[in-house]
Amino acid sequence: MLKRTFVAVAMVALTSGIAGAQAPKPVPVKPTPQPTEEKVAPKAPEPPAQPVNIKLEVTITDQTGPGEASKKIVSMIVGDRQGNSIRSSATVPMPMSGGMPGVPPPYREVRINVDAHPILLKDNKISVIFGLEYLPQVPATAKNATERPAEGTASLNERLGLVLESGKPVVVSQAADPTSDRRITVELVATILK
User: Fold this and answer.
1) Alpha-carbon 75 to chain mean position
2) Does residue 20 lie within any of the structural domains?
């Protein structure tokens, strides 16, 4: 009997030990951090636009080989801290050698688009955000000045951030045509109008 009691007590002890070992222990819960409001310093307001106009003159020089260069000039007057755009386009025929009689030649668009946003600075300086899209007429071939190739058109597309001195012309870009010896040079003059 004593042996049965000892076995029963041992079984109870063993069972409670196993049950106690399998019971999950409470995990301490950390409080979730609450988002804190970061204090951001207020951005200083931009200075107001000055009541001054700026004349911008863009000269595009298109040079192929040793021949005479073609020049296009676009000018605009823009207020301080204002954005201006000029859009100029046309559709031109592209004559092709061996064209079919009575069939009109294909056409393509040519364009000059200029965007400018000037900001007056100190010491007679002007910061200008400048954009140009130039898709010119295909230049005449050297063999026949009236015939133009139907393919191989070149274009120039640029966006520049510049600091210019009032009235001083600056060559802001020179680009080479990837298919020929053609060069496109862009000169910009920004002049403060008093």
Assistant:
1) 23
2) no
The tally of domains found in the chain comes to 1
Q: Partners of 72 in the beta sheet?
A: 60
User: Are the beta carbons of 176 and 186 closer than 8 angstroms?
Assistant: no
Q: Write the DSSP string, 23-73.
A: SPPPPPPPPPPPPPPP-PPPPPPPPPPPS-EEEEEEEEEEEETTSPPEEEE
CA-CA distance, 152 to 138, in Å (whole number)?
A: 8
Per-residue CA distances from 42 to 4, 38, 39, 45, 49 (Å): 83, 12, 9, 9, 20
Q: Which domain holds residue 86?
A: 53-193
- Residue 153 falls within a domain, yes or no? yes
Q: Which residues of the chain fall short of a pLDDT of 70?
A: 1-27, 33-38, 95-100, 138-153
**pLDDT tens column, 116-169:** 999 999 999 999 999 999 998 765 544 444 444 444 567 889 999 999 999 999
Residue at 32 is within a domain = no
Q: Is residue 106 part of a domain?
A: yes
